[in-house]
Amino acid sequence: MQGITNGIMLGIFYALIALGLSLIFGIMGIINFSHGQMYMLGGFVAYYFFSQLHLNYFVTIITAMIMVGLLGGVFERIIFRPLIDQELNAFIASLGMAWVLEMLAAIFFGPLDKNVTPPFKGVVHVIGVVFTTQRLLTVLIGLVLVMGLYLFLMQTKTGKAIRAVAQNKEAATLQGINADRISTLSFAIGCALAGAAGVLMTPTFVINPFIGSEIILKCFVVIILGGMGSIIGPLVGGLFLGFVESFGCLFVTVPSVTLITFVIIILILLLRPQGLLGHG
């Protein structure tokens, strides 16, 4: 049961970041390698605004989403939109932007790990399983954000426009949808989710300028597992990876968990290239 609870927390965490990455890819067709750095920036917002300035934790989450989301929107307009039909150049630009953000973070924030004191103390006992209050609330807030995005995409007019552009940009434009505005909004939303994940997970883990490179790799794992063609694919892929890591660390070493994870990915790519919930 402890492994299950840890797996759920990790799964929601991975899904929250991968959803944003999947949204950006679905709209713009760009593999944004700087997406992990948006998580990193959210973590530093948590460190400075919550730990240093003692801003309310929930206000800090909203602040991180706004700040990182706005930054993502600026990047989309200035860097990625001119490269919208140049996949290789856009890939190189996103890779370069990831390194630029890492170096700037190392210069301004320092290269060492930083810790954020958990805002919620104590533990909760349920049928013999111990939950820290912090981890329980992290799961709940993460679920709220994931479900909020799902409802936004499925129920609102803007969400339906985003889905229309993702399915067929030309047809959506002919129906009067402003594809450029949708691209900027989608990029901002995706980055905002990564920023929120940074605030949620920094009290549990540490934050440093280079953590984004590790995070982005796991995001790609989650997307491959879940499939790009499904809205809930990243959630399923995140939970799958979370359970593999959680239970793997209980019985084998960390390198063995990594080996098992990538063996599973190779098998899925061979047997079902579209992912567990992707469309063939």
Note down, in words, how this protein is organized:
The protein has 280 residues and is mainly alpha-helical. It has one domain. Helix content is 74%, strand content 3%. The chain has eleven helices and two strands. The chain has helices spanning 2-28, 35-52, 57-80, 87-109, 133-155, 157-167, 169-174, 179-201, 211-226, 233-251, 254-271, and strands spanning 123-126, 129-132. Strands 1-2 form a two-stranded antiparallel ribbon. A hairpin with a 2-residue loop joins strand 1 and strand 2 (129-132). Helix 2 packs antiparallel against helix 3 and helix 6 crosses helix 8 (179-201). The longest helix has 27 residues, at 2-28. The protein is globular, with a radius of gyration of 18 Å. The chain starts with a helix and ends in a 9-residue tail after the last helix. The model has no long low-confidence stretch (mean pLDDT 86).
